[in-house]
Specification:
about 325 residues, alpha+beta, Structural Genomics Hypothetical 15.5 Kd Protein In mrcA-pckA Intergenic Region, Chain A, Alpha-Beta Plaits, Pseudouridine synthase, 3 domains, 9-stranded mixed sheet, 3-stranded antiparallel sheet, 7 helices, about 20% helix
């Protein structure tokens, strides 16, 4: 347990106390500071106060930093493919089939459970240091924060769209050229499990271009500006190029004319959306250094591309 004493300066008189404390404690997020105020870990003259209360200037705020677990998720020994790590971040190449964190129907066996086993200190952080997510059946690169300062700055980079995320996807249809989908995404009013392009949704922008074109399919590079749920899957489906293997947005398996038995079998047996987080670029949350990583395509996507090439030859 650690105790901090923060003196609110005169210049902040009239400011909300949560805002004043955020400025005085730049290494912690506004939401974290608000949570401390509401839990009674932050006190003025041994008394509770509200985040919206105004400062008179010169208040002494006593903040108790309890090193307690932020969740009750259990640690589990699950293999992780660590691409890079230092004392502030971990970069992993997530295998498909792994849920990001516990939730309804998946309380164990997730990436968060694996991270807590790999580094028990992550139990002190919200969501075990996870700052963004990949769908269960999407593979590829993710960054994990190892301390609150790193978590705060990584979240800010994601919110400011300064983290570059490049994906590889294999889609239905022969794509003539690349483009940009700039359409808002929200919950599908007809199916609450799904997302959809919706005027009432949140802004979402996806850039895409063809890497390899086949007779009836295309290997695509997709770059996210925003990070909405199922964004690439929804946007590419919206422009008529749904992902192979996507059970939610792809519809039934479609075979090209005169498809070989090998191709039919490959398409039928590809049981997850053909999507891989290939490249991740960000500024290190502590040093500020620009860092970038590339993860090769997983074996299942590589094998599918080989079958598509063979069908075209």
């Amino acid at each position: 347990m650690k105790m901090l004493k923060i003196i609110i300066p005169d210049r902040m008189s009239g400011s909300r106390l949560d805002s004043a404390l955020s400025e005085m404690l730049p290494d912690y997020s506004r939401s974290k500071i608000t949570a401390w105020i509401k839990s009674g870990d932050a006190l003025i003259n041994d008394k509770n106060f509200k985040p919206k209360d105004k400062s008179n200037g010169t208040e002494a705020v006593f903040l108790t930093l309890n090193q307690k677990q932020n969740n009750d998720w259990i640690a589990e020994k699950i293999p992780l493919n660590i691409f890079y790590e230092d004392e502030d971040i971990i970069v992993i190449n997530k295998q498909f089939g792994l849920v990001t964190h516990p939730g309804a129907g998946n309380w164990t066996g997730t990436l968060a459970n694996a991270l807590l086993y790999y580094d028990p200190a992550l139990s002190k952080l919200d969501r075990a240091g996870i700052v963004h997510r990949l769908d269960k059946n999407t593979s590829g690169l993710m960054v994990i924060a190892r301390n609150e300062k790193s978590q705060k700055y990584l979240v800010e980079q994601l919110q400011n769209h300064s983290v570059d995320r490049e994906y590889s996807a294999i889609v239905y249809g022969h794509m003539i050229a690349g483009g940009t989908v700039d359409e808002p995404i929200g919950r599908d009013p007809k199916d609450r499990v799904k997302q959809a392009v919706s005027t009432s949704g949140k802004d979402a922008t996806t850039h895409y271009r063809a890497i390899d074109r086949f007779k009836s399919h295309t290997h695509v590079k997709a770059i996210l500006e925003t990070g909405r749920t199922h964004q690439i899957r929804v946007h590419l489906s919206y422009v008529g190029h749904s992902l192979i293997g996507d059970p939610m947005y792809g519809g039934r398996v479609r075979f090209p004319k005169k498809a070989s038995e090998e191709l039919k079998e490959a398409l039928l047996n590809f049981k997850r959306q053909a999507l891989h987080s290939k490249k991740l670029t960000l500024n290190h949350p502590i040093s500020g250094e620009s860092m970038s990583w590339k993860a090769p395509l997983p074996d299942d996507m590589t094998a599918l591309l080989e079958v598509l090439k063979k069908f075209d030859s």
